[in-house]
Amino acid sequence: HTQSDYQNKKVLITMGPTQEAMDPVRFISNHSSGKMGYALAKAFQARGAEVYVISGPISLNVDKSEFHWTDVKSAKEMYHAAHKLHGLMDICVFAAAVADYAPAEVAPEKIKKSEADLSLKMVKNVDIAFELGKLKHPGQLHVGFALETQNESENAKAKLDKKNFDLIVLNSMRETGAGFKVDTNKVHIYQSSGHSVSSEVDTKAKIAELILDQIKLVPIGV
Ligand code: PMT
């Protein structure tokens, strides 16, 4: 590929975890570090794209000033930020690990410890990729991720269809050196056209390059 094969492309990337508050001091979240999303942001930037990042809370040492960067906490905030930018984008990459459920209510004060057990009612969060998938415009390309622990390829392909992705990147929790936190990943990429490719374990930077190369094979010609 040439250095500037994504010149003039506007790319939205969601990344990191979301935090769903239960009270002013506690939240429900997951182990996403933001490393995969950040590697994608760097790769697109290096290949000429204008990159818009919407990131959940991360503790990576990153240079946000290189990008159009929005920090968010909850899935709802991530959705609103993404919805606002979506129509202007050529490519949207949904790399965030969005919490599927959030506490039904956020207690206004810290929940006090008592002798009793505590149960928490959770409600479904908005599915950002699914909702924006319904708004995908001609020529726009959507890339999803799937993080699976079982029936990996079936689940990934089902998400590809359901969320109207052009391409989905499966990372399995069963593979060592893949998924959350680590500096490496091992992926299977499925396109809606039926084309697929698998990687070995490699740095997230290298995996990002592979994803960018695969995006260029999508027939709508980004
Ligand atoms: O951040 P790292 O530590 O580097 O780890 C990278 C990663 C494992 C988080 C990343 O590579 C990854 O797989 N991200 C997606 C994780 C995930 O939540 O997958 P999922 O199978 O639950 O979701 C499927 C797709 O829908 C994803 O594109 C996800 O961003 C999107 N989604 C899911 C739920 C939701 N409410 N809104 C969404 O947009």
TrEMBL record:
Its EC number is 4.1.1.36, 6.3.2.5. The keyword Metal-binding applies. Keywords: Decarboxylase, Flavoprotein, FMN, Ligase, Lyase, Magnesium, Metal-binding, Multifunctional enzyme. Binds 1 FMN per subunit. GO terms for biological process: coenzyme A biosynthetic process; pantothenate catabolic process. Pathway: Cofactor biosynthesis; coenzyme A biosynthesis; CoA from (R)-pantothenate: step 2/5; Cofactor biosynthesis; coenzyme A biosynthesis; CoA from (R)-pantothenate: step 3/5. Its cofactor is Mg(2+); FMN. CTP binds at D100, K110, F145, K159, K163. Coiled coil: none annotated. It comes from the Bacteria. One of its GO terms (cellular component) is phosphopantothenoylcysteine decarboxylase complex. It catalyses: N-[(R)-4-phosphopantothenoyl]-L-cysteine + H(+) = (R)-4'-phosphopantetheine + CO2; (R)-4'-phosphopantothenate + L-cysteine + CTP = N-[(R)-4-phosphopantothenoyl]-L-cysteine + CMP + diphosphate + H(+). Residues 7-216 form the DNA/pantothenate metabolism flavoprotein C-terminal domain. GO terms for molecular function: FMN binding; metal ion binding; phosphopantothenate--cysteine ligase activity; phosphopantothenoylcysteine decarboxylase activity. Residues 11-222 are annotated as: Phosphopantothenate--cysteine ligase. Catalyzes two steps in the biosynthesis of coenzyme A. In the first step cysteine is conjugated to 4'-phosphopantothenate to form 4-phosphopantothenoylcysteine, in the latter compound is decarboxylated to form 4'-phosphopantotheine. In the N-terminal section; belongs to the HFCD (homo-oligomeric flavin containing Cys decarboxylase) superfamily. In the C-terminal section; belongs to the PPC synthetase family. This is Coenzyme A biosynthesis bifunctional protein CoaBC. The gene is coaBC.
